[in-house]
Amino acid sequence: MKGRNVKPVWVVDDDRSIRWVFEKALAREGIPFKTFSRASEALAELENGAPQVLVSDIRMPGTSGLELLQAVKQRHPTLPVIVMTAYSDLESAVAAFQGGAFEYLPKPFDVDQAVDLIRRALDESLREDQGEIANEVSPEILGQAQSMQEVFRAIGRLSQSSATVMITGESGSGKELVARALHRHSPRAAKPFVAINTAAMPKDLLESELFGHERGAFTGAQAMRRGRFEQAEGGTLFLDEIGDMPAELQTRLLRVLSDGTFYRVGGHQPIRANVRVIAATHQDLEARVKEGLFRADLYHRLNVIRLRLPSLRERREDIPLLARYFLAKSARDLGVEAKRLSEAAMAYIAGRSLPGNVRQLENICHWLTVMAPTQVIEVGDLPAELRDEAPAAESDWHTALAREVERMLARGELSIMENLATRFEKTLISRALAYTGGRRIEAANLLGIGRNTITRKIAELGLEEKETPSA
């Protein structure tokens, strides 16, 4: 927000802890703010001038958030208002949207998600105020693995294109980052990048969210609202988790992609859409088409160019690079000294399955920055859920072994084969005993060794106290 005359963001909530969270988060981001414990206080302050963005709880003592929304929209129709509501209060969220809310934030919320939402609302507000569009900057994508280099090359090849792109990949693998990079390196880079997760939006709100609505389109629609297609005019619209889009909205989206026009809800005038669409999904769309859950014609419209993003398990060599980056980023965000992972801790993380992919790794690094007791993070400092998580898939074990051999060679260790063989045998026997509940004969049969051999190995490897001598 540098170089702009930005008015404060107002946060209205009777819960002191919620106000405190926003105060800390907005101060950290350098966003000016003012907090109120009651809606009546914000209404009184409105006499002296409006905020840039208003964030308000719905249910509060006295004047409610919906009444505040109505009063604000009457005086300042274009002011973005974000309403906060519990998941159980979806009815109020619908009413808020109908009343012209910019977005709603379900409680409990992720602080980073809330700040991102406020930033988007600020951009929208500044466009209304100044007639200019913020040029979004997104973090660079990191990766040295061959599979990621292919992604980078694809982004480069598409740099002068406005073709529709379909990004596939597991949840948390960075699909939105790739979409932002495609936008940033395209001829549309100076125009907005607008993202929406179609799976996260309630079905009855998604149509208005995408296409906007006219004033009076339904009960409570007191102001015209521009949808994401209009917000992204000239730029890029990123439709995340497109595979979950309801059937009737698939039809409307197909129409926009086919003839380039759409109607706001309750509208009669066609609106031209000059927008590049990038879609993403973690699902098998071909299978959903066969099952009748996704329109075949829409699938072919979206699947002009396909970009597959590898999971983190497929590019484990990037884990140290990413972990160091996320630890440095978290330290920078929190204003503390960056921590680092020991070799053992790094190897341990690299050997986990990490089903949440890059997003999970980032969250782990943020947790470690806050919670790890020392600057050098050891395996014992890792979060309990990571230590409980399954190790890498069977097909990856030889890759992990190769890395461990390389590390031992680099450290100048001796008797590497003997040391690894001992660790190998210990893992095999301890896992087999755990599987059989400590029954030695059964474990020996499963491993293909004799009873005397397993008894001797248990003694040699110091497993006596860990297994149950039930055979």
Describe the protein.
Helices cover 46% and strands 12% of the residues. The chain has helices at residues 16-29, 39-45, 65-75, 90-98, 111-130, 146-157, 175-184, 203-211, 228-231, 247-259, 285-290, 296-302, 319-334, 343-350, 357-371, 384-388, 397-410, 416-436, 440-447, 451-460; strands at 9-12, 33-36, 53-57, 81-86, 103-107, 165-168, 193-197, 236-240, 261-262, 271-272, 276-281, 305-308, 340-341, 376-377. It has a five-stranded parallel β-sheet, with helices on both faces. It is built from 20 helices and 14 strands. It has 471 residues and is α/β, with parallel strands linked by helices. The N and C termini lie far apart (70 Å). It has three domains: 9-130, Response regulator (Rossmann fold, 3-Layer(aba) Sandwich), CATH 3.40.50.2300; 146-310, P-loop containing nucleotide triphosphate hydrolases (Rossmann fold); 313-398, Helicase, Ruva Protein, domain 3 (Orthogonal Bundle), CATH 1.10.8.60. Residues 130-139 and 465-471 have low confidence and may be disordered.
